[in-house]
Amino acid sequence: MRAVGWIVERDGEEPLRGEGVPDGEATVTLPLRSGREVIGSLGLFLPQDRRLAEDELRVARWAARLYARGLGYSERLASEGGRRSDEEVGDALARTPLTPREREVVALLLSGASTRDIADSTGLTVSTINTYMKRIFAKLGVHSRVELVARIAGTTMSAS
Fold first, then answer.
1. Which helix (H) or strand (E) holds 90?
2. pTM, two decimal places
3. What are the structural domains of the chain?
4. In angstroms, what is the C-alpha Rg of the chain?
C-alpha cells in the first residue's frame, strides 16, 4: 500500500497534513481512539481508482491504533511535566537505600554511561559493575536499567 498523502484531524486542532495531500476527501478514513473514545481521524489519500485489500486495511487500522496510542502517551508526558529536574533526581537518589558507590554507579547510568564507561570512570571491572547493578536492582525493586532510570528520573507514575 502506498498512499499519496495523509491527514490527521483532531477536534479543536489544526489538521496535520503529510506531504502531497490532494484536495478533496480521503480515500480511507480511520478513527483514532483512546480507549472507547474517538479522539480524531486518520485520512489516507490513495492513487485514483485504488482500494485497500483486506490485509492492507488491517495494517492501516493497526497503524491508526499505534498512532493514537502515541498521541495519548505524548499528551500524558506533557501534562505530567515529563522528567524530574536534575536537583529532584539528586534528591531522589539521596533518599535511596544505596551505598555511596552504588549511588555513583546509578548517577553515571542516569547520565547515559554504558557498563564499560562506568567501569572505566570508577576504576572497577565490568564484572563488579554488573554485581553492583544486581544489588541496586534488588534494593530498589526494579528489574531492568530502563525501569531503574524511569524510577529515579521520574518518567513513570511509580517514580514518586
1. helix 86-94
2. 0.47
3. 5-80 (no CATH), 86-159 (1.10.10.10)
4. 23
